[in-house]
Amino acid sequence: MARELHDTLSQGLAGLILQLEAADAQLGRQNPEKARQIIAQAMQKAREALAEARRVISNLRGNDLGELGDSLRREIDRFEAATGIPCAFHADSTPHLPDTVKETLLRTVSEALTNIARHAQAAEAAVTLSVKENHLTVEIKDNGRGFDPQNIPSGHYGLLGLRERTRLIGGQLTLNSAPGQGTTLTIHVPITQAPNHSIPQ
Question: For the chain, give me the number of helices (H) and strands (E)?
Answer without folding.
Answer: 6, 5
